[in-house]
Amino acid sequence: MIHTVLFDIDDTLYSYTRADAVAFPALAAYARERFGVSYDRFYDLYWAAYREQIRRVGHECGATHSRVLRCQIMLEWLDQPLTYAREMEGLYWNTLLDAMEPTPGMEDCLKTLKAQGVRLGIGTDLTAGWQLAKLERLGFLPYFDFMVCSEEAGADKPAPRFFALCLEKAGCAPEECLFVGDNLRRDVQGADRAGMHGIWFQPDDGKAAGVDGILRIRSMAELPALAETL
């Protein structure tokens, strides 16, 4: 019997891919206006700064997702005042928050699971502040009983310590937990290795393909019925 269902946030509760396609160009336009940096150069700097974050921290964890730290690194490389770092971070995330649209059927899914007596949790990479802001903006925050983020766990998914903290907060046996996410390696296989039921959220885009032995849903409307069968 399923006691707890945990959800990833980005590209699960909403499309990060589509929202980032609005937020990243806004940040690049800011850099062009303030610093005279072309889009292509900004793109290269941004991802180089991300790699530098990982190198400095030593592994993938919440700090490697910090946009303020990423902007700080870029400003240092550009020999620009660090006063811009927080403004750039706010521009990126607030633009993304405005662009977010919930996954179709998501709220109905959460309501149904709650009506079934299931506890709901979040298991997400990134930092707590902006992930809570996303849940609040989407209107989903009241449905969730707890959250685990990689900032708190000290490591990104699929690290065992991340899923151990999920289970600690879930307060039940691993086989009584579902973990729903869009990333096969991080979300689904990470949860499976922890003894949970990993559920791959893979909306049908005409290219989706299944993987043997992996539970998969194409829409959130499928999840409550699936939870009742496990």
Which secondary structure elements does this structure contain, and how are they paired or packed?
Blueprint: E1 4-7, H1 16-35, H2 39-57, H3 67-78, H4 84-99, H5 106-115, E2 119-124, H6 128-138, E3 146-149, H7 150-153, H8 160-170, E4 177-181, H9 184-193, E5 197-201, E6 215-217, H10 223-229
Helix pairs in contact: 1-4, 2-3, 3-4
Short description:
The protein has 230 residues and is of the alpha/beta class.
The major beta sheet can be summarized as: 6 strands, parallel
Helix share bin: 40-55%
The rounded distance between the terminal residues' Cα atoms is: 6 Å
What is the residue-averaged pLDDT? 95
Q: How much beta, percentage-wise?
A: 5-15%
Name the helix and strand elements from N-terminus to C-terminus, one letter apiece: EHHHHHEHEHHEHEEH
Please count the beta strands (DSSP E, at least 2 residues each). 6
**Unreliable stretches, pLDDT < 50, 5 or more residues?**
none
Q: What's the overall geometry?
A: elongated
Record the strand order, biggest sheet.
3-2-1-4-5-6
Instruction: Give the count of helical stretches.
Output: 10
**Structural class per helix/strand content?**
alpha/beta
Give Rg in angstroms.
Answer: 19 Å
Detailed description of the structure:
There is one protein chain. A six-stranded parallel beta sheet has the order 3-2-1-4-5-6. Helix 1 (16-35) runs antiparallel to helix 4 (84-99), helix 2 (39-57) crosses helix 3 and helix 3 (67-78) packs across helix 4 (84-99). It is α/β, with parallel strands linked by helices and 230 residues long. It has helices spanning 16-35, 39-57, 67-78, 84-99, 106-115, 128-138, 150-153, 160-170, 184-193, 223-229, and strands at 4-7, 119-124, 146-149, 177-181, 197-201, 215-217. The chain is elongated, with a radius of gyration of 19 Å.
